[in-house]
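During the reporting period the student researcher (J.K.) took over the structure-prediction task from the postdoctoral fellow and processed the backlog of single-chain submissions. One of the processed entries is reproduced below for the supervisory committee.
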Amino acid sequence: GGDSAVAVGDTIRLEATGQVGGLVGILAYDPLRDAAWSSSDSTIAKVARPLPNPADTLAAPILVHGVRPGRVVIEASARGVTGHKLIVVTRIITQPSRRR
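J.K. obtained the following structure tokens:
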């Protein structure tokens, strides 16, 4: 739950998990690998599939890359079930230079 934030130029990872098909899906360890991902505005944030990882057994991961400040809805759809996540893309916060 809740919003996620990513800075311009940064990338965060989201995962789609769910009881698609209820308990049968869980028992079959169905990772929703075929989830279709989309961004409501790719000029604010782009989505990209990460390289397949055998460790991703229970979730379908996606990488969300911030392009410019704004708000965007990332959507995942799999087998008739759709999930939405609001992503807030923030400006790059410049760290003050540290004194030695």
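The committee noted the following: DSSP finds one helix and seven strands in the chain.
J.K. will present the remaining backlog at the next meeting.
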